[in-house]
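On clarity, I found the account of how folds are encoded harder to follow than it need be. For illustration, here is how one protein appears when written out as sequence plus structure tokens:

:::
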Amino acid sequence: MIKLTSLFSGSKGNCTLIQCQQTNVLLDLGGTCRSVLHNLQEMELSPTDVSAIVVTHEHSDHIGALCAWQKKWQTPVFAPKSIAKVVAERCLCNVLPIDGSFCVGELLVETYACSHDSACCFGYRFSCGGEAVASVTDTGCFGQELVDFLYPCRTIQLESNHDENMVLQGPYPAVLKKRILSATGHLSNEQATQVLQKLIGSNVKNVVLAHLSEQNNTAELAFNTAIKMYSRYNLVEGHHINVFVAQQNKRSVTIE
């Protein structure tokens, strides 16, 4: 049995817990140590129960709490090979470079190369006991490769960062708007829905919409955009498909 829990997700920080048998992996360690510890305690886990920390990329909303964490607990840290040295220097810790698939305890971890304005950014698929979950955020575009990567999974966490109209009409400077909407920015609600549409008929039954912008999106917009698409195919949320929205300030549901 494999579980995925979004501890928190959004512009200020990101951290997801992946569990299988005796293995507990934290995907990213953004936000603050306090928020991570609070969520782990609510799940009756301690820092010493964490088997490894797997990093997607070097932006602060994904590794902001890593330095403080490693000062107290020397948890094994994995990061893409091309940024392993940067993460190690910034977070004052040893980092194991990711160069292809690898294992943490009972989990097989496979990578997907995201299109993002970082030195390197990976999405990950975690497999255990014939089941798989995946998390892909911080990518400005997608193709069939992403669909194929997510296709075998029962549960996926997928970026649904912004509503394009909110970005265009919002207060951000033009250069930041251009970055967000670019092919190396973030997936919009509509783009996420296009991915989900291509996954109809796949193994995917549980969807967590993640990395929502606080300024350029709402949970209702992201959720409704996905639900409207599914309804066009006569798929009922809660029956044929389950859709959740990861929150910035609280833990989302654990999906087994």
Q: What stands out?
A: The mean pLDDT is 97. The longest helix spans residues 219-232.
